[in-house]
Design a protein that fits this description.
Blueprint (H helix, E strand, L loop, with lengths): L15 H6 L10 E8 L5 E3 L7 E3 L4 H10 L4 E7 L16 H12 L4 E6 L12 E3 L2 E3 H18 L3 E4 L6 H11 L8 E6 L6 H6 L20 H13 L3 E5 L5 H10 L4 E5 L1 H12 L5 H15 L3 E4 L2 H10 L1
Parallel strand pairs: 1-3, 1-4, 1-12, 4-5, 5-8, 9-10, 10-11, 11-12
Antiparallel strand pairs: 2-3, 6-7
């Protein structure tokens, strides 16, 4: 093998054309899913203080935003609902006239080809803020499963293209897959939050979705940030139960997990570039401490380099515009 001075690795870095020819990981707009918050009510377009540039929309305000998203070439959105009514079992989550169900119908009218993914969880809909049914101060796994199934089915009946269970209850992928198949909707994919960690990076999201737990925390069902072998077990189980795509969440602090999942399993892998990761970049950029565009593209490219096929990110609209300018 040649060595310096015959071997000069800088030769292929000399111009942008040369660099682009040998680039190993490339970020594309078709890699992106844009998360959106929909709030029950009307005439609502409220910016989220901890997430500059991200808004809560009531269903009647969605059409213009959806046309912009589709016009930028972003292929998919994922919806999170903020209902007017909350109770112990999150009944608004599976109400056929619920806010997410309304939003799905409006989006499909505005942009029929846009892929609509829906978050399937109860935390935004329960008055205690936990992701399932609480019994004696603890989330009951098995009592929660039928409610997640009802939620997923109601989303599909409204027109959702993909359902994404994010609750981290054991067995929920199997339960949802079986229910979809029994309802003659075997064509609906499941995007499973397979390795979802109990992360401090979710802070802004919980404000945005009004889903802060009213007692305790979610470490009893979300994963310990110290573990990676456990993540592989979670992913393996979800794939066996019928998941079509698996998510690692968060992304930036868990690039090693993304890589391990990519190397171990032959299925599409998604990374969720979460609210705290987004907020940190936005806050530093507003202070003039870093170049927002370069940092964002570098971070998302790192997720691709680690093995992600799909990236859920609040930066999606900005990234789509920046990629168009290249």
């Amino acid at each position: 093998m040649a060595v310096f001075p015959q071997l000069r690795l800088r030769r292929l870095r000399r111009t942008e054309s040369l660099r682009s020819m040998v680039r190993e990981s490339e970020l594309h707009v078709t890699d992106l899913i844009y998360p959106m918050f929909v709030e029950d009510g009307s005439r609502i377009r409220q910016e989220i203080a901890s997430m500059p540039g991200i808004f809560r929309f009531s269903p009647d305000q969605l059409a213009g935003e959806i046309e912009e998203v589709a016009g930028l070439g972003i292929p998919a959105v994922i919806l999170f609902g903020i209902p007017q009514h909350k109770d112990e079992t999150g009944t608004s989550a599976y109400d056929d006239q619920g806010v997410v169900q309304q939003a799905i119908r409006i989006i499909k009218q505005s942009a029929p080809d846009l892929v609509v993914v829906t978050d399937v969880c109860l935390c935004e809909y329960t008055d205690h803020g936990h992701c399932g049914v609480v019994v004696d101060g603890h989330v009951d796994n098995d009592l929660t499963l039928p409610l997640l199934v009802k939620t997923a089915l109601s989303h599909v009946e409204a027109g959702a293209d993909v359902v994404a269970p994010s609750d981290m209850m054991d067995g929920r992928v199997k339960a949802i897959r079986q229910a979809l198949d029994d309802a003659d909707r075997a064509d609906i994919p499941i995007l499973a939050y397979a390795a979802k960690y109990a992360s401090a990076f979710y802070g802004p999201f919980r404000d945005a979705a009004d889903s802060v737990p009213q007692f305790g925390d979610r470490r009893g069902y979300q994963m310990d940030p110290a573990n990676v072998r456990e993540a592989l077990r979670e992913v393996e189980q979800d794939i066996k139960e019928g998941a079509d795509i698996v998510i690692v969440k968060p992304a930036l602090a868990y690039l090693d997990v993304i890589r391990r999942v990519r190397d171990t399993f032959n299925c599409p892998v998604a990374a969720y570039n979460v609210s705290g990761e987004y907020a940190m970049v936005k806050a530093a950029a507003q202070q003039g401490w870093l170049d927002e565009q370069r940092v964002t593209l570098e971070a998302l490219t790192a997720m691709k380099r680690a093995g992600a096929d799909i990236i859920l990110t609040y930066h999606a609209k900005d990234v789509a515009r920046w990629l168009q300018q290249r």
